[in-house]
Design goal:
By secondary structure, the chain is an alpha/beta fold. It has two domains: about 190 residues, FAD/NAD(P)-binding domain; about 110 residues, FAD/NAD(P)-binding domain, CATH 3.50.50.60. About 25% of the residues lie in helices and about 25% in strands. The protein has nine helices and 21 strands. The strands form six sheets. Strands 1, 2, 7, 8, 9, 10 and 21 form a seven-stranded mixed β-sheet that branches. Helix 1 runs parallel beside helix 9, helix 3 runs antiparallel to helix 4 and helix 7 runs parallel beside helix 8. The radius of gyration is 22 Å and the shape is globular. The structure holds flavin-adenine dinucleotide. Flavin-adenine dinucleotide binds next to helix 1, strand 11 and helix 9.
């Protein structure tokens, strides 16, 4: 028998959709993705992008609290096997002491558990293929199982592109970031020298945003002009805290475990001269890739592969009964709270659509 509602994804959008749908008695089935080396390299492990970061200071409802309180909260809220995956945050050499914001993996475990508590069901696998040109829709998981669904919420997110240079991975969350709005205000970056890599609108926006907190921001761009819009270029040029490093490519990130990033190594594409730019942080702003490979040819995507919402303030896609939420359809805000917001909207849209079609009780 076909499922009423299947949700694909496992970030804030998916778990919020699952929470709302479960409370509406739709018994949603969530495909949360698989734990594979390929997904680790791509950055699409279960629990989404937020689970890759440390402190989340901008998700409402979580002020700073003593780390021991998070430990007790996790022990009380989560089953033993899920608590075990967080244990390293509370015990041992790397445990955080004193007050802090909530960590990404904690908030994502809480979201998942909250959805399960009210009746969401979970399959720990990727959806490899989606047949959306038939109804019920058919989803084929990586390990081969087929699931039919009357309605679908796609919340598979996106992943930031990184440079792939030596040490970049080692210093992720220790000075290397792909999100200035998320991390720029952290104390480790305040009044420090920072590097932004990229030349499009996002790179310029990130540089301008960071200049509010940083001592100096240097934008490393491999060409001699920016791709960013003229207005953004003017704002950048008039900002005394931003300096352009034209015609340079990043070749490595330098640092140590205690301080994190201490410098970024760049090479000139004009004369091959190598230079080390002192920096406490490197923000990579070279774009994001939406996780929509499995939807190719099935529903309308934009030129970058993001799902196209068909109406302002609605989560309907080009296929009736298929809804999209979070970063997979939002190349603009890319925040956990906005993803959760559209997750809620998608569940409500799906619930109403099922009722209108006479599928719901
Ligand atoms: P995602 O979080 O991208 O999750 C989607 C998940 O779906 C994937 O990870 C994968 O597990 C699963 N999936 C993908 N494809 C499939 C498939 N075919 N089948 C099954 N499952 C699949 N935002 C903030 O608001 N505050 C912050 O402090 C902050 N810090 C960040 C730090 C980092 C390092 C990063 C990368 C992002 C940060 N963000 C932050 C952004 C925030 O994490 C994202 O905006 C948010 O997670 C998007 O949520 P989402 O639900 O749309 O999808």
């Amino acid at each position: 028998m076909a499922e009423s509602l299947v949700i694909v994804g496992s970030g804030p959008a998916a778990w919020t959709a699952a929470l709302y749908a479960a409370r509406a008695n739709l018994r949603p089935l969530v495909f949360e993705g698989a734990v594979t080396e390929a997904n680790r390299l791509k950055g699409t492990l279960p629990l989404g992008q937020l689970a890759q970061t440390t402190e989340v200071e901008n998700y409402p409802g979580f002020p700073y609290v003593d780390a021991l309180v998070f430990s007790e909260f996790s022990r009380s809220a989560l089953p033993e096997e899920r608590y075990a995956s967080l244990r390293g945050l509370y015990e041992g050499r790397h445990a955080h002491r004193g007050k802090r914001a909530i960590f990404g993996p904690e908030i994502m475990e809480y979201m998942r558990q909250q959805a399960l508590n009210v009746g969401a069901r979970v399959v720990t696998d990727d959806v490899a293929e989606a047949g959306l040109r038939q109804h019920p829709f058919v989803l084929t998981a990586s390990e081969g199982s087929r699931t039919e669904a009357l309605a679908l919420v796609i919340a598979t997110g996106a992943h930031a592109q990184y440079l792939g240079v030596p040490s970049e991975e080692r210093f992720r969350n220790n000075g290397v970031s792909a999100c200035a709005v998320c991390d720029g205000a952290l104390s480790r970056f305040r009044e420090k020298q920072l590097v932004v890599v990229g030349g499009g609108d996002s790179a310029v926006e990130e540089a301008i945003y960071l200049s509010r907190f940083a001592a100096m921001v240097r934008v490393v761009h491999r060409r001699d002009q920016l791709r960013a819009s003229k207005i953004m270029q003017q704002r950048l040029a008039s900002n005394p805290k931003i300096e352009m490093k034209w015609n340079r490519v990043v070749t490595g990130v330098l640092g140590n475990d205690e301080e994190g990033v201490t410098a970024v190594r760049v090479r000139s594409s004009v004369d091959n001269v190598v230079e080390e730019i002192t920096a406490s942080g490197m923000f990579v702003a070279i774009g994001h890739t939406p996780n929509t490979d499995f939807l190719e040819g099935q529903l309308e995507l934009d030129e970058k592969g993001y799902i196209k919402w068909q109406q302002i303030n609605r989560t309907h896609t080009s296929i009736e009964g298929v809804f999209a939420a979070g970063d997979v359809a939002d190349n603009h805000y890319r925040q956990a709270v906005s993803a959760a917001g559209t997750g809620c909207m998608a569940a409500l849209d799906a619930e109403r659509w099922l009722a209108t079609k006479g599928f719901a009780e």
